[in-house]
Structure formats: structure tokens, C-alpha cells
Amino acid sequence: MKTLILAVAIRILLPLFILFSLYILLRGHNHPGGGFIGGLICAIGFIFHTMAHGPGHTIASFFCICIYVQPRQTGQNKLSHLLRLLSANVVNRKKLKGNATYTLKLLQVDPLFIIASGLFFAASSGVAGLLLQQPYMTAYWADFYLPVFGKPGTPILFDFGVYLLVLGVILKITFVMAEE
């Protein structure tokens, strides 16, 4: 179902879906909402984009990272090489388009990586309780208040992990079904 109306509308709606899902994620540990519904809302935006443009265009637009690489020269230590690559990819990115010494590589972020990252964040949120000799998943909050986040603590780390997990699972299902 590739229509021009959906293709134009999703350009406007996808950033709104993502922003609203982040809002639901951040308000979730104090009010209804959280990682699960936030991940669903974000995934809905990517589902609509996949319906409008196809899975290849969605993956190329949102889940590919372009980096510049250069082989390490003999006699150059690892730290200076890493700093040079960091400078090339962050600071001097526009100047390197015609430079022959750097090679442009595309790294594709697989939905399975998003799932694994979500599982890591959700599981590691309970480790603070174990380190302080409390039961696993004991919640801890900081003593200060941040304007957007509220009081940061381990429940928001768990919600973020669930957000990534739900997003990754739905993206994987969507991409597999759309390619067939």
C-alpha cells in the first residue's frame, strides 16, 4: 500500500510519533505509561514508514550509521589513532567527503541489536540492589531533580530497556513480514 499521501504524511508524523513516545517513556515511572507503550508508539511510526516506503528505505534512512575509517599507520599509537578517527567522524565530517585516505563505511543497526541492548538495560537496572546487598530490582533514586526527567533512578533505566526491547521486537517482525 504505497500511496503518495501516506508517504508525505509520514515525513511529518514520524518525528511526532518518536517525540510522543519519548514523552510517554519519561513520564511512565510517575504516571501511566512507560517503556512498553512508549516503544509501541515509536514502532507504529516506523511501521507506517515501512508501509509507505518499504523496509529497505526505512533501514537505510534510520538504521544505518555512516562512519569514516582509516587504517592505523605504523608507529602510531592506538589513542592518537582513535582521537583522529573521532575528530574525522564528529568535527571534520563535511571536509572528508573527497578525502581519499578515509573510507566511508555503513554500519547497519539490526533490530536484534536493539533487542539485546534493551535486555541489557532492563537486566542491569536491578544490579544496583544486588551491589548494595538488597533484593534484585530494588529501586534507587538520586537525591537531585532534573527538569525533564524528574528524579533519575533505576526504574527509568528499566523502562528504557523495555522501550528498546519492544521497539526491536516489533521492528524485526515488521521488516521480516514486509520483505516477504
Strand content: 5-15%
Give start-end ranges of low-pLDDT stretches: none
Domain count: the total is 2
Mean pLDDT: 86
> In order across it, which strands form the biggest sheet?
1-2
Q: What is the overall number of helices?
A: 7
Number of beta strands: 2
What's the main sheet like? 2 strands, antiparallel
What brief labels describe this structure?
single chain; 180 residues; mainly alpha; two-stranded antiparallel sheet; 7 helices; 2 strands; globular
Topology:
Layout: H1 4-27, H2 35-53, H3 55-62, E1 64-69, H4 78-91, E2 103-108, H5 111-124, H6 127-131, H7 154-179
Antiparallel strand pairs: 1-2
Helix pairs in contact: 1-2, 2-3, 2-7, 5-7
Give a written overview of the molecule.
The protein has helices at 4-27, 35-53, 55-62, 78-91, 111-124, 127-131, 154-179; strands at residues 64-69, 103-108. With 180 residues, the protein is mainly alpha-helical. The protein folds into 2 domains: 4-63 and 110-179, no CATH class; 65-106, no CATH class. It has a two-stranded antiparallel sheet. Helix 1 (4-27) runs antiparallel to helix 2, helix 2 crosses helix 3 (55-62) and helix 5 packs antiparallel against helix 7 (154-179). The longest helix is centred in the C-terminal third of the chain and has 26 residues, at 154-179.
